[in-house]
Design goal:
Layout: E1 13-19, H1 26-36, E2 42-48, H2 55-63, E3 69-73, H3 80-90, E4 95-98, H4 110-118, E5 124-128, H5 141-158, E6 170-173, H6 174-180, H7 191-199, E7 205-209, H8 225-238, H9 245-271, H10 276-299, H11 307-338, H12 342-364
Parallel strand pairs: 1-2, 1-4, 2-3, 5-7
Antiparallel strand pairs: 4-6, 5-6
This protein binds guanosine-5'-diphosphate and magnesium ion.
Length: 368
């Protein structure tokens, strides 16, 4: 007699946990989830970017005796938004939640969130720090101000009023993400903002307040670069994804290059009394080097060059940028010959060299 096929229901709720160096926090989080989600058919998917502290191993060891606990180990990639997206796409539950590994989000909110989702009139429930009853805990006044301002700007771009669109703690009907997955950016860190803006005004959103806690163990990975990330994401959303995030970063870095150029030029001419030609050459050399460094830190931080590769990359970037400068000059001159508006010709030349530098350096300097 053939054995009857063994069937088991998929979990109702997948808890997606992005992680980087969180080995000490994962076991505590699992314990808390077991308590908080008692009576619910759940699973936990840790999405780890190959943390050197062995977060993936720690997770799998727990998973060996509790098959609800799984780990996706991503190699050669870094990025919070991409990790969250991959976790949600690996789920086959009706609902998915995203929660940080460091216990700053209150896991006791998950059950009320699920109850809200089960009512059926909501696509996304956001855990909010800013609504009545919520709090940012011990945020410094500076960080609070940044957070509130970033929230205001986000609402402008979204065209709807959410108290915490930058929250990293939310639950959604997984079909929502499945439908728009291809349009979401894997590069930034504000996945919720991206989902809400891409999903559009038909999304039904609810909010539940909680208090943002202290990180339990380990260190925060989000630093000043997130401001850059955020500006890029907003620009990409404001242009309806016409411009890729990477290209926007590249342009933002290029803009800072103009500042560097003029600062060095000014110092060369005014402070050190160099001849204009030398000061200009020095300014170009310094601006290209700082552009290279910033692009390596920000635009291509997921494939950052180090050691010898950094130096050869810099040399190559100098060559590419020189060709870019020549094309800038020739396109500008050609345009000026046709259309006698100096700033238009200048803009055309600059656009030409930015596109050239971007296209060629992403092929040759930061190739996969
Ligand atoms: N997979 C993955 N997780 C990340 C990455 N950066 C941060 N995280 C995780 O995202 C969550 C929030 O990051 P955290 O550094 O605590 O940010 P903060 O709370 O704003 O200081 C934590 O669980 C981190 O481990 C990343 O590049 N990849
Ligand atoms: Mg944190």
């Amino acid at each position: 007699m053939a054995a009857a096929p063994l069937t088991m229901n998929a979990p109702e709720l997948s808890i997606v946990v992005p992680s980087f160096n969180e080995s000490e926090n994962i076991p505590v989080l699992v314990d808390r989830l077991r308590t908080a989600l008692d009576g619910i058919n759940w699973e936990m998917i840790v999405v780890d970017d190959d943390s050197p502290d062995g977060t993936a191993d720690v997770t799998r060891r727990i998973g060996a005796t509790d098959s609800r606990i799984r780990c996706i180990r991503r190699v050669g990639r870094r990025g919070l938004a991409g990790a969250c997206l991959e976790g949600m796409l690996a789920s086959q539950a009706l609902f998915a939640a995203v929660i940080d590994a460091d216990l700053q989000h209150d896991e006791k909110l998950l059950a009320p969130m699920l109850a809200k989702m089960r009512e059926g009139a909501t696509d996304i429930v956001i855990g909010t720090r800013y609504a009545e009853g919520g709090s940012t805990g011990d945020f410094s006044s500076g960080r609070k101000w940044i957070s509130v301002t970033a929230t205001r700007v986000a609402n402008l771009v979204l065209g709807r009023k959410l108290s915490d669109p930058l929250s990293g703690f939310f639950m959604l009907r997984r079909a929502v993400v499945e439908g728009i997955a291809g349009e979401l950016s894997t590069h930034g860190f504000k996945i919720l903002l991206d989902i809400v803006s891409t999903g559009g005004p038909s999304l039904r959103i609810a909010e539940l307040p909680y208090t943002f806690g202290l990180r339990f163990q380990g260190a925060s990975k989000l630093d000043t670069r997130v401001a850059f990330d955020y500006a890029g994401l907003l620009l990409a959303k404001a242009t309806h994804n016409l411009l890729s995030l990477r290209f926007i970063f590249f342009c933002l870095v290029g803009l800072t290059g103009i500042g560097v150029h003029f600062a060095v030029l000014w110092a060369g001419v005014r402070l050190f009394h160099l001849e204009f030609g030398w000061a200009q050459a020095l300014a170009i050399a310094v601006a290209i080097a700082t552009n290279f460094h910033l692009n390596n830190q920000i635009t291509y931080r997921d494939q950052r060059l180090t050691g010898v590769n950094y130096l050869t990359g810099l040399m190559l970037f100098y060559v590419i940028s020189s060709i870019g400068a020549i094309s800038n000059l020739s396109v500008g001159t050609w345009l000026f010959g046709h259309e006698q508006t100096w700033w238009l010709a200048g803009l055309g030349g600059a656009a030409m060299s930015v596109v050239w530098n971007y296209a060629v350096s992403s092929l040759m300097v930061w190739r996969r």
